[in-house]
Design goal:
Blueprint lengths: L3 H5 L21 E8 L3 E9 L2 E7 L10 E11 L7 E3 L7 E13 L10 H7 L1 E8 L3 E8 L7 E6 L52 E3 L4 E2 H19 L3 E6 L11 E3 L12 E5 L5 E6 L3 H9 L2 E7 L11 E7 L5 H17 L5 E4 L5 E6 L6 H18 L4 E2 L4 H4 L3 E4 L8 E2 L16 E2 L18 H7 L6 H8 L2
Parallel strand pairs: 20-21
Antiparallel strand pairs: 1-2, 1-6, 2-3, 3-4, 4-9, 5-6, 6-7, 7-8, 8-9, 10-11, 12-13, 12-15, 12-16, 14-15, 16-22, 17-19, 17-21, 18-19, 18-23
């Protein structure tokens, strides 16, 4: 029976939810999105098919932005009468909390017009749905796509490009123009792996998505997965072909929780995840992971990786870095001093005719990255950087130092160049950091270097609003420099 799982999870003597009875087909199939204030706010997305409501739990509010792919967890079928349900599910019952109607309307199955027509139920089994929504908030063409083709639970809810699309709204629904009618979407191109060949990827399902990973903020594993799904197009150019060390916190952040660094890729990881086998200690080899595509990235996040640290060089020439990093570490110094040093260093770099890129470290400091275009490898790059760092210390001796000993630095900012060595790693732009607030290492424009700058303002919750306001990636030039090497 299609509603057996729904019935098994509920005690209808205690919950006001509708009974488990299949309904009659509507002349025009309906959809509903319910705002569900349970343990964590989420949105229940439901489509009528074969007398029931096919259902997905969406951790984030559905959006009209085609660039935003929402994680959608496939759950049990619900009765058609659930489409009008609103009220409070009592404590102790499954899904306890308040349910409200967020949007409702009818929909059209786009798969019915394909060369081989497909019902919605068959589409669920196949792992792909395409439909037009006629709601008050959600209008136009959408798709639900099961991740990796064969998994059962984890899907992506995607807005297709049409006249109802609202790029950059990031979940803030805009009113579609009056009179606009949805149009058919051309078939999407199949996913291709790095190098242009189709990826042979084994299916996997996200696990324990309700686990709290940032307890002070209430962010769950689903929130982190959603972040990396959305950030992947910006992040992957900084990860691709660079040996990576994973910072894993499988139970989330906290003094008592496990926190470890993983260089060696376990043998049980799927074969489709690329590795780089590099010599380490005499007679030993480290199998580094290469994060070359979104599938690998999300698999690692599902394994508990919150932050990724990558080499300064790529596989094509591991002895030559792509950039030099000036890591401005405040330690016991003030962030105001960090700003002064960054500004002075920027001026020195401009005098040399160097293009420099600025980002937050994701914690308390700033990173300045300069493309390395000179002859030589890590040693030459580091020595060049140290020469500039010494000029900074000469000009600002009260607030800047290149002293490696923490006890000898006092309240001065450490201008760190020592990471610029083969085998050392850097936090790339756009990764989360495992500290309260879920901060993100965020690229900045140099004009943002002012007393108003607060690195804590850039986090899992706010970062996409920032992107919506800015069409240009401040780090785009650095990525371009990788391609020209």
């Amino acid at each position: 029976m299609p509603l057996e799982e729904y019935k098994a999870k509920r005690n209808f003597r205690k919950t006001p939810e509708p009974a488990a009875k299949a309904g009659k087909h509507s002349k025009q199939p309906i959809f509903v999105v319910q705002e569900h204030h349970a343990r964590r706010l989420h949105y229940d997305f439901r489509l009528e098919a074969d007398g029931v409501l096919k259902s997905w739990a969406v951790p984030k509010e559905p959006t009209l932005d085609p660039a935003v792919k929402r994680l959608a967890v496939h759950v049990e079928d619900h009765p058609l009468t659930y489409a009008t349900f609103k009220g409070r599910i009592p404590e102790g019952e499954y899904g306890a909390g308040t349910v409200k109607i967020w949007d409702r309307g009818t929909y059209e199955n786009l798969l019915a017009d394909k060369a081989v027509p497909q019902t919605m139920t068959k589409g669920v089994e196949a792992g792909r749905l395409e439909f037009v929504l006629y709601g008050k908030k959600l209008k136009g063409r959408f798709a639900l796509i099961r991740m990796h083709g064969r998994g059962k639970e984890n899907w992506l809810l995607i807005k297709m490009n049409d006249e109802f699309a609202r790029p950059g709204v990031e979940g803030r629904q805009a009113v579609p123009p009056k009179g606009a009618k949805p149009q058919r979407q051309l078939p999407a191109k199949p996913h291709a792996a790095h190098g242009g060949k189709p990826a042979k990827i084994e299916p996997f399902e996200f696990s324990h998505v309700d686990k709290i990973l940032y307890p002070d903020d209430g962010y769950t594993k689903a929130d982190v997965l959603d972040f990396y799904i959305r950030i992947a197009p910006r992040l992957l150019p900084f990860l691709r072909d660079r040996p990576a060390t994973l910072e894993r916190l499988p139970e989330g952040i906290g003094a008592e929780e496990p926190h470890f660094w993983q260089k060696n890729t376990p043998k049980y990881y799927p074969k489709w995840i690329p590795r780089a086998n590099l010599p380490a200690e005499p007679g030993e080899t480290v199998s580094y992971v290469l994060i070359n595509d979104a599938e690998t990235l999300l698999y690692l996040v599902n394994q508990g990786a919150l932050t990724f640290h990558v080499w300064f060089s790529r596989m094509e020439n591991l002895d030559r870095p792509d950039f030099v990093l000036f890591d401005l570490d405040p330690g016991q110094a003030t962030f105001t001093d960090v700003l002064k040093i960054a500004d002075y260093l920027h001026a020195l770099l401009e005098e040399e005719g160097r293009v420099a890129y600025l980002k937050t470290s994701g914690k308390t400091g700033l990173h300045i990255l300069v493309p390395w275009t000179e002859e030589g490898g890590y040693t030459e790059a580091r020595e060049w950087g140290l020469g500039l760092a010494r000029l900074v210390v000469e000009a600002l001796p009260e607030i800047a130092t290149i002293e490696r000993s923490k006890t000898k630095r006092g309240q001065r900012v450490y201008v760190d160049l020592m990471q610029n060595s083969r085998g050392q790693t850097v936090v790339p732009p756009y990764v989360l950091r495992p500290v309260a607030g879920a901060p993100v290492s965020t690229p900045l424009e140099w004009r943002e270097l002012s007393p108003k700058l607060d690195p804590r303002a850039f986090n899992l919750k706010t970062i996409f609003r920032r992107f919506a306001k800015s069409k240009r990636d401040p780090m785009a030039g650095l990525v371009d420099s990788f391609a020209t090497r």
